[in-house]
Each structure stands twice: as C-alpha cells, then as structure tokens.
C-alpha cells in the first residue's frame, strides 16, 4: 500500500491519495446527512401542517411551539430518521450488490417527492366512505410509488421493516399521551399510517441514493483528474 503521507519538494507533509479519499468520503457523508436532515425537517413541517389543519392529529396546547402547529420534537425526529434512511439505502445497495434498475435522475426524485406529498395530502383532505377504503387506497398508492420509482427488493424490504417500527413507535407515543389521533381505528392510531411511513421511507431512500450517486461521480472524476 502506498504511504499515507509523503514529503513535498519544500519538505512539508502532504496527504497521500488514500487518506485524501477517506477524508473526502467522510466529509461527503456528513454533507449528505445534513442535506437529508434538512429535507426531512421541511417535509415534516409541511406534512404535519396538513394533518393538524384537518384535525387528524391533535397536540396538547402546551407543546405547540411553532407557526406550523407542530410540536417542537417532530421535525428533529423526522429529520434524523430521514438522514438515517437516506444514508442506509445506498449502503444496503452496495452490500447486497443490487444495482438500481431504474435510471436515476433528479427529475425522477422530485416526482417521487411530489407523489409522496400527494399521498399524505389524500390521507388528510380526501373524504372516503370508511377508513378501510382509505387504507386500501393509500396502500395501493404507496406500493405504486415503490414500483414506479424504486422496484428493488432491498428498498421494499427496508420500507416495510421501517414502516412497522415507526408504527410501533407511534403507538407507544400515543399510548403515553404525547399526542393523539382523532377517530383511531388501529389500536391508538389510524390504519393508513403505515402506508404513509412506507411511502416516506421509499422517498427518502431515493433521495439518499441520488445524493450518493452524485457523490460517486464527483469522486471518480476527481480521482481520474489526479
């Protein structure tokens, strides 16, 4: 292996190519995580506003602390989860050696985000005859989102697993009185909530994959130039 450091002509130490690449990867990882966190916080504020305005979710008055009618802890939690999901998806892809079957473009990612927002909007604004019909409709839309913008087995598996964990965590929060759902029909929550979680996981996974792909292209170009 080449030396980690070497002396330049004036006797000062320089980082070797190996250390330089590792440093760049660490920096890029932090940048990607920060960007994913910001996207998660923004979507949490916007989507939670839809739910609160429709009186789907109710927070106690003493924890309302923003103009978006969202409890202070919701955006940071969603941002952290978004960062972890967005970083996990490309990592799992590399581990499994499962390349993405669809052509990755930012326009496709933006369409995925738009569909996810639309699914959430439908859960809050569209009136259905009963909760079963609403849940089945959102389930079909969520699977359609995965099929249109993902189609990977790892993406589907992670989406289902994380959606189940998020649903369990939400059940515990509602059980302990942190907030509540109006007209719960699945224990303490609404039956369509896992569908929203699944669609959100797929969306953040696609954003994470696109950021990782862009990073890979930049690193390869830099190595080629060096």
Automatic annotation (TrEMBL):
InterPro entries for this protein: INSIG_fam (IPR025929)
Residues that span the membrane, as ranges: 29-50, 70-89, 132-149, 156-175, 187-207
Role noted for this protein: Mediates feedback control of cholesterol synthesis.
Protein name: Insulin-induced gene protein
Annotated localization: Endoplasmic reticulum membrane
Gene: INSIG2
A single cellular component GO annotation: SREBP-SCAP-Insig complex
GO molecular function, one term: lipid binding
Biological process (GO), any one: cellular response to insulin stimulus
Topology of the protein relative to the lipid bilayer: Multi-pass membrane protein
Family from the record: Belongs to the INSIG family.
């Amino acid at each position: 292996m080449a030396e980690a450091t070497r002396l330049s002509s004036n006797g000062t130490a320089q980082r070797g190519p190996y250390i330089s690449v590792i440093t760049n990867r660490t920096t890029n990882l932090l940048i990607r995580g920060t960007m994913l966190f910001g996207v998660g916080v923004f979507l949490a504020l916007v989507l939670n506003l839809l739910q609160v305005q429709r009186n789907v979710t109710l927070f106690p008055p003493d924890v309302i602390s923003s103009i978006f009618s969202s409890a202070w802890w919701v955006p940071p939690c969603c941002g952290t989860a978004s960062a972890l999901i967005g970083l996990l998806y490309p990592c799992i892809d590399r581990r499994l050696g499962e390349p993405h079957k669809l052509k990755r473009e930012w326009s496709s990612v933006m369409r995925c985000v738009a569909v996810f927002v639309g699914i959430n909007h439908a859960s809050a604004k569209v009136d259905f005859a009963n909760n079963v019909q609403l849940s089945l409709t959102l389930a079909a839309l969520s699977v359609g989102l995965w099929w249109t913008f993902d189609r990977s087995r790892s993406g589907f598996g992670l989406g289902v697993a994380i959606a189940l964990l998020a649903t369990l965590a939400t059940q515990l929060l509602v059980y302990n009185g942190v907030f509540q759902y109006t007209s719960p029909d699945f224990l303490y929550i609404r039956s369509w909530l896992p569908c929203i979680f699944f669609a959100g996981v797929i969306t953040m996974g696609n954003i994470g994959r696109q950021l990782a792909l862009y990073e890979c292209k930049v690193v390869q170009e830099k190595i080629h130039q060096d």
